[in-house]
Structures are given as structure tokens and as C-alpha cells.
Specification:
mainly alpha
Length: 68
């Protein structure tokens, strides 16, 4: 199978190296990581939930009294 060389920054290489499983090649690692991505629809609305959670946490810290 033909191969290609790619250049990545050292920090990216180090991160990929940490993700590699014992005996796993970089090619297999990249294929595994690419297949872990779910459909974009799974992320739909997730930021809205994060915003609601942050708002609840902020209210509990600040209290529910009037704003000044």
C-alpha cells in the first residue's frame, strides 16, 4: 500500500504518541481516531446545555438576589 509522509508540530506528535496503544502504528491510531468521531448531529444542542449549566452554577454562586 502506498504511503505519504506528513509533518506535524512536536506537541501534536507527542499527543499522538500518548494516544497510541501498545503495538499500534500511527496509521492504525489515526484510523481509530477518525472512526471515533460521531455524526455532527450528536453534537447539536450540546453548547446550549453547557450554557444552561453554567448559568445555574453562576446563579448559585452569586445568589438569586437583584443585580446591582
Amino acid at each position: 500500500m502506498p504511503s505519504r509522509n506528513i509533518a506535524v508540530r512536536k506537541d501534536v506528535y507527542d499527543a499522538l504518541q500518548r494516544e497510541k496503544r501498545p503495538g499500534e502504528s500511527f496509521t492504525k491510531l489515526l484510523v481509530r481516531l477518525l472512526h471515533q468521531r460521531g455524526p455532527l448531529e450528536e453534537l447539536s444542542g450540546s453548547w446550549a446545555q453547557v450554557a444552561r449549566t453554567a448559568q445555574r452554577q453562576w446563579k448559585s454562586v452569586r445568589g438569586s438576589g437583584p443585580r446591582r
